[in-house]
Each structure stands twice: as C-alpha cells, then as structure tokens.
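Exercise 7. Predict the joint structure of the components listed below.
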Amino acid sequence: MNARMVSGLVAGLIFGLGLIISGMADPAKVLNFLDVFGSWDPSLAFVMGAAVIVTSAGYRMAFMSPKPMFDDAFHVPLAKAVDMPLLGGAALFGLGWGLAGFCPGPALTSLALAADGTLVFVPAMVIGLWAARFTPKV
Amino acid sequence: MTEFTPLASSLGGALIGAAAVLLMATNGRIAGISGIAARVLPPYEDRETAARVAFIAGLVLAPLLYMAAGGAVVQTVSTNFPLLVIAGLLVGFGSAYGGGCTSGHGVCGLSRLSKRSLVATAVFMGVAFVTVLITRYAL
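Solution:
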C-alpha cells in the first residue's frame, strides 16, 4: 500500500462514516427529505449545508499549496459548458434517486449491511456507471 | 416518518466535507463517488485505480467499523426489486453521464462554485422532488 492508497482508504472511511452518522445512508430518510408536502424530514439540508461549508473552507486552504501532497497537480474538472449530457444525466440520476432513495455513495456504503434491496440496486447501478463510459456524449 | 436529526446530520455532513478536503489535499482528487466508482472498472485511463479501489474499500468498511465501535445503523431499503433495478440503472448511468452525483456535483462542485455543478444539482434535486411527489401522491 502506498501513500495514495492510504489517503484514499482513510478518505473513504471518513466519507462512509459521515454518510452513516448523517442518516444519508437510510433511503427512507432521503425519500422523506424529498417529500416536502408529506412526511418532510429536513435533515439532509443540514448534511449538504455542513458538507459544503467544510469543503469550501478546506478547499481554500488546500489550494494554497501549489500541489497536493501525493500528486503533481490538483485534478479538478475543467469543463465549463452547461450541455445536454450534464442536463440529461442529472435528470436521469434525479429520477432514479427519487425512485429508490439511494445515490451512489450511500448505496456503496450500505453494501456490507446487506439489505436485499441494496444487493439488487448496487449491481444495476454499477452496470449503469460502466455503460455511461461507453456512451458517446451527444 | 423519520426523525429530524439536525445535529447528527450536520456532524455527518462535516465528516463528508472533511473526507472531500482530505482527498483533494493528498491525492488532488474530487471526492465524487460516481466518478470514482465508474473508474474502478476498466478501461483504465490513468494510474489512479489503486487509490480509487482503496477509497471504495473505505466506504464499504465504514459501517462495519461504526458497528464495531458500538453504533447502530438504521436503514429501510425498498423491497420492490424491479423498481430497484430500474432505479439503480438510472442512478448509475445518469450520474456518470452527467459527470457527477450528490457528492461530486452537490458537495465538491458547489464548494468550488462550479456553474455546471450548480445547474446539475438543481436538476437532479428538482427531478427527485417531482419523482417522489408523483410516486407518493399521484400513482
């Protein structure tokens, strides 16, 4: 294991713990967040809010360095255009998220909990993730 | 009904942010789960695969560590398997094709003040709101 793998593992662990502690790993909580007119549970607004505040401040500090600790440069997306793949992809993702209450992080962190639904959802999601890499961006 | 948990949710969100900052400060990478997971599979276009696999391993091990420390994970997952297959395909394809999900666009992108991420987040949140509205009240 090299330093990049250790930092990846630790970041994944902290990320997963955050998903669990925040309640985001519970699809019922996610669906209730999305159900503004019914059993609304605003908790996820606090997850997103806190995550964005910490990331904004932390990124500012990280970007003060000329480069990351274990790489030659920061790899940030360079695309600027709001195009059809962005809009169409986001719409399809939102539809699936609203149907199941799972987005990619919580679905993967739920694997070891081995709910039947998770074990059905994740393989389908992985096929979708993979298929997108071979689909031309129109 | 699920319980409103502003404190736990803020703490969890802060941890998600800390993980995103750590990954950027060390490996110089966006903590976007859809992008990381999609690139764990071939074809391999860079030398980042091992670090991506390690990140996913951490994500998967997190609940086991949490439970070993005495925590309890509460979860209600649908048992409508055909629906879960369709939803899984949509979530996977849509997030990878759209260049990000709740983490890559929603957390990292918004934190970088990316216009693309702001638009994508508004679209997937909006569509998800409408989807829940329709499935819970119209069908």
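Discussion. The radius of gyration of chain B is 17 Å.
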